[in-house]
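Predict the structure of LytTR family transcriptional regulator.
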Amino acid sequence: MPQYGSSGRPPRRKRRVGRILLIILLAIVVLIAATWIYLESSFNRVNALEDYAGRPAAGKGTNWLIVGSDSRAGLDAEDQERLATGDAKGQRTDTMLLLHLPDNNEKPTMVSLLRDSYVDIPGKGKNKLNAAYAFGGPKLLAQTVEKNTNLRLDHYIEIGFGGFASVVDAVGGVNMCLDKPLKDPLAGIDLPAGCQDLDGANALGYVRTRVGPRADLDRVIRQRQFISALMDKVASPGTILNPFRLVPLLADAPDAITLGEGDHLHNLPSLGFAISGASDGSTVSTSVPFSGTRSVPKIGSVIVWDEAKSKALFEALRNDTAVPSNVIVMPGG
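Done. Here is the predicted structure for LytTR family transcriptional regulator.
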């Protein structure tokens, strides 16, 4: 049997293989680091959260304000027509969610803030919640949410029309099952009943339309279902391990998302997992309890929060305690 010395070929081959594996490992590390730096430096930023007189003190856990706006920034006329964005002037919020991540073993809680909620807007009096964004952008909206919930917000994230559609297209669409057909020319959708993959344009129409007997309340249900399904798709092996989906997603994400100035890439995974948890019950999902609706001159129909139940909900979040079952409601419940 041949014996190999220090100059034998097999040891040299082993060293060569070892160097190749080391180079591959270093290349992967460099690629991950470069991607991280690119994403961290490329997100849009906005000064949404700042101190002011009377701001609520920090409670336990972490609070996110998640905003879906009707921003048409970056969309040309062709894109606006394809996405059926309409030609409304100014900028409003179609979706507002408060997400609480506890520091203990309690479940995360995702709260829909109905856009027609009748609330106090600092410096503007009482109006619909989504008017705060129109009056003063992200900063006034954040202050309004803090003042009316007595919760200090720690993080802010916003996504506009074009960004939302791009992310959905990047992951290859999102499967949704409709109990009945959903048609809304204003939102640009004509969806049949049954399970189907929604592309970016149809997904945007699906979460925007107010068609249904309960209008905005039905829309909130669709929004929560879709956002949870989208987060599941983003985190799935079919996206993470598929370069034809992952690369477009990483390329589109920075333009699609606006973060608060103090927010960073490492804050996002826990946000995504908590949102996706709404689909399997690992995240508590509710709207702010409300007592009814009424008409206000020059403002229109508004939603009135149930004072006792909404206070109990926000106090539970503030103290990282279990949300009382009697305040957990679905829109229309």
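Residues 44-327 form a domain with the Aminopeptidase fold (CATH 3.40.630.190).
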